[in-house]
Design a protein that fits this description.
It is an enzyme of class 1 (oxidoreductase). It comes from Micromonospora zhanjiangensis. It is a single chain. By secondary structure, the protein is of the alpha/beta class. It folds into two domains: 140 residues, Glutaredoxin; 147 residues, Glutathione S-transferase Yfyf (Class Pi), Chain A, domain 2 (Up-down Bundle). It is built from nine helices and six strands. Helix 4 packs parallel to helix 7, helix 7 crosses helix 8 and helix 7 packs across helix 9.
Length: 321
């Protein structure tokens, strides 16, 4: 079998199997913990402005979705934001973008330090996004699917005026099914292609990815957003994969049946979102490319970062809306 990028997350069949999220506590409106305390006996931390810090990477799609949701809801006024360097070394995500190479609030050089403070026995990959409690220095959650839903549902008292409802109650059953399909075949599907070390595992992931993209393209033919006329969490989750597609997934992860720019409906849809405030202004193609091409030596041993593609197409008219 070929060398795996992440050996602990590679099955004997050559399939990439993503590790589970280690920290799954939640910040909830019904927490019994007083401000400054927490969590309560049920593992619920209190909603409190200024207490928590979201650590993200501009390169990571899972973290990117949290950053978009935070901004759309206006929660960037209530939750601090720390940004890690797109290049990880052997100790993981680094705060080298900050003065003295430390997060100015948490005081750590590596996100791994907060993981160890929360669980000294943790041996998996340190991942972003991570919501960290600034009082204790503990990681509250790296559970990226639940984290953004909680921003929408549990932090409502701190949303900005006019914030969108990204997880409408009446749509949740359909949204949950749709987001599960998108996660399995697209969000995680590109990784199942890129990190596969067996031909069959790769081909199965490849077919599932493009079958799902074709279905989503058909769904979006006669509607602006995945759920119709309203922007939801599902659009954000799809966007963060689509915006990386031509820059890294098409080539680096061998997702090369088509480029996004060769799929007319999805390309127009993605440009529509990119040009929406809160989306394109959070995209950093330099960080994206340097991270993927520079930190996966099993896939790209030379570490060369491609100069293309030209990102100017993202700002061209999309004809939707």
């Amino acid at each position: 079998m070929a060398q795996a990028q992440f050996t602990r997350e590679t099955a004997a069949t050559g399939e990439f199997v993503r590790q589970p999220n280690r920290f799954t506590d939640r910040v909830t409106a019904d927490s019994d913990a007083a401000p400054g305390d927490g969590p309560d006996e049920a593992g619920r931390w209190p909603v409190q402005a200024g207490r928590y810090r979201l650590i993200w990477s501009r390169a990571c799609p899972w973290a990117h979705r949290a950053r978009i949701v935070l901004g759309l809801l206006g929660l960037d006024e209530a939750i601090g934001i720390g940004t890690v360097d797109p290049i990880r070394d052997e100790r993981g995500w680094r705060f080298t973008l900050d003065p003295d190479g430390r997060d100015p609030v948490l005081g750590v050089e590596y996100l791994a330090q907060t993981y160890r403070a929360s669980d000294p026995d943790f041996v998996g990959r340190v991942t972003v996004p991570a919501l960290v409690d600034t009082v204790t220095g503990r990681v509250v959650s790296n559970d990226y699917p639940q984290l953004t839903l909680d921003f929408s549902t549990q932090w409502r008292a701190l949303h900005r005026a006019g914030a969108p409802d990204l997880y409408p109650r009446e749509l949740r059953a359909e949204l949950d099914r749709l987001m599960a399909d998108i996660h399995r075949d697209v969000n995680n599907g590109v990784y199942r292609c890129g990190f596969a070390v067996g031909q069959q595992a790769y081909e199965e992931a490849y077919r599932a990815l493009f079958d799902r993209l074709d279905a989503l393209s058909e769904r979006l033919t006669d509607r602006r957003y995945l759920m119709g006329d309203v922007l939801t969490e599902a659009d954000i989750r799809l966007f963060t994969t689509l915006v990386r597609f031509d820059a890294v997934y098409h080539n680096h992860f061998k997702c090369n049946r088509n480029k996004l720019s060769e799929m007319p409906v999805l390309w127009a849809y993605a440009r529509d979102l990119y040009q929406t405030p809160g989306f394109g202004d959070t995209v950093d193609f330099d960080h994206i490319k340097r991270h993927y091409y520079g930190t996966h030596p099993a896939i790209n041993p030379t570490g060369i970062v491609p100069l293309g593609p030209d990102p100017s197409g993202w700002t061209t008219p999309h004809g939707r809306g």
